Amino acid sequence: MSAINDTFVAPPCFDEIELLWQDEHLLLINKPSGLLSLSGKNPQNLDSVHYRLVQSFPGCTLVHRLDFGTSGIMAIARNKAINAALCHQFTQRAVSKVYAALLCGHVENDEGIIDAPIAKDPALFPLMSICAVTGKPARSRYRVIERFYQATGLPLTRVELTPETGRTHQLRIHCQQLGHPILGCDLYGGLEWPGAGTTPRLMLHASGLDFVHPVSGEAINARHAAPF
């Protein structure tokens, strides 16, 4: 989750951050599931992507975040100028992101668009909610890769998700809205399906990130296959 309340204490994450690519300006990493992107206010939540990387790359900063349970590709800026340049690409929606996910149940259509505005709901913190009145525009595309059954008999759909906006918990709440929550999602119904309760992690992985290198101008097309 990207919004962590002060009572949440992350269990220890023993998985290493995988360095996928680096130059003098930026890093591309594979974040393990179960690791915070940024250290929390609670001193027990010190361990994070930023906390670990700054030990080896002083001055590095996060350009974007992944939820606590989400694994996959993150871009890390090695100085403030690079951070500003990359953040500009994100705000201009010039960055393309692709995620792999396992959804509960068998999704009926082979592809589609989920267009549902997302709002913060203080009464439900840290959950977000779909709200046509106060919500900010949010749009996600999905494409079915395969439909299958887990050994327990749980029907699952492997999908490719492409968020066109970048709202907090967007993919998680949009998949719930579709009627097929992401397997292992503790906030939006992904542990409630029969046979889903013992899922060890959120089955969501940032598998693709496309942007323009802010110094060289070359196209960066980062890919990392999902571990599930």
Automatic annotation (TrEMBL):
Pfam family, one: PseudoU_synth_2
Keyword Isomerase among record annotations: yes
Superkingdom of this protein's organism: Bacteria
Family statement: Belongs to the pseudouridine synthase RluA family.
GO molecular function (one): isomerase activity
Phylogenetic lineage: Bacteria, Pseudomonadati, Pseudomonadota, Gammaproteobacteria, Enterobacterales
Domain Pseudouridine synthase RsuA/RluA-like intervals: 25-177
Top EC class for this record: isomerase
Name this protein carries in UniProt: RluA family pseudouridine synthase
Species in which this protein is naturally found: Enterobacter wuhouensis
E.C. numbers: 5.4.99.-
InterPro entries: PsdUridine_synth_cat_dom_sf, PsdUridine_synth_RsuA/RluA, RluA_PseudoU_synthase
Keywords: Isomerase
